[in-house]
Amino acid sequence: MDREALAEFLLRRREALTPADVGLSTGPRRRTAGLRREEVAHLATMSTDYYTRLEQRRGPQPSVQILAALARALRLTEDERDYLFRLCGHSAPDRAHVADYVRPGILRVLDRLHDTPAFVVSVLDEVLVQNDAARALIGDASGLTGLERSGIYRWFAYPEIERRRYREIDHARQSRALVASLRAAHGVMGARSRAGEIVTELSVRSSEFRRLWAAHEVSRRFEQHKVMVHPELGEIEVDCQALFTEDESQALIVLTAAPGSDAASKLEFLRVLGTQNV
After folding, report:
1. Residue 201 falls within a domain, yes or no?
2. N or C, which end of the chain is more exposed by having fewer CB within 10 Å?
């Protein structure tokens, strides 16, 4: 690990960004160029102290998860991300299979969506990044690890928890859609991929999954209209729009409600309140 080069690289990339580049307000006049350390730490969901130690050449070797978060926070290109990984003694991710890297263009669109829930998901329904409104509506996904990062996996492995965000009448339809989506991803990624791991685990854990998997339905689509269930505010009717990346490996999901509707009022309430308890 080259601590000297890492510190210099992080500093230069931080200085090259403005708050507007990452969807933050400018606030009071700044004494230095670029983002503050605490802003980068917030965007990467890590402590300011940890990030500061990296810039001061005294931090530990970051994990690949930490590096992926820093690459998103600093809006790195794929070449810059690979360079960051190598500086820290890790191999650069395989570009043909990596799912965690979100391109700066998608992040810039997400940064401008402050007033409605929006998030980026992989083909395995892993939330890669989300705005505050999405956290308030569907929960904070930043602490999930391993197979539990996949909403498909959680839907069948922990139905009593994961399905509370949907009406019971919609559960069967959602189950079919998720398995059909996993079948499509499995066909692309192969049996020895993370998709294959999910299939193996769920085939043991869930009889419902085994039945649906045996049906061989293949599809990747998002319901254009759905009803979300918030634990405090109840049912919220939203329209769902999906913007896919060029290779269709990721999708930016935006949830909106009809202007003036009860659902719009609830989304506005969540946006103002954030993730605090109602």
Report:
1. yes
2. C
